[in-house]
Amino acid sequence: MAVLVAHVRHRIAHGFGLGDVAARVAGALTAAIDREQAEAASARDAGTSALPMEARVRIATFFALACGVLFLPVDGSRVANDVLASLLILYAAHAALTSVVLIASFTARGERHADALAVGLVVGHAVNLLVYVSVWPRHPGLPAGMLACLLMGNTVLFGWTTGRVLVLATIFCAGFLAVGTQSVPRGAERPELFVAAIVLAVGAMTSVGCARLLSLLRASLAERQRELTDLSARLMAVQEDERRRLSRDLHDEFGQSLTAVNAYLWLIERQTPEEQGEQRRRAAEARRLVNRTLGGMRALSQLLRPAVLDTLGLLPSLDALLKTFGAIHGIATSLTADGLPERLPQELETALYRVAQEALTNVARHARAKRVRIALATLGEELRLEVEDDGVGLPPSASTTAGTGLVGIRERVRALGGQLTVTSRRGVRLSVQVPLAA
Question: Which residues fall within 8 angstroms of residue 194, CB to CB, at 6 or more apart?
Answer without folding.
Answer: none
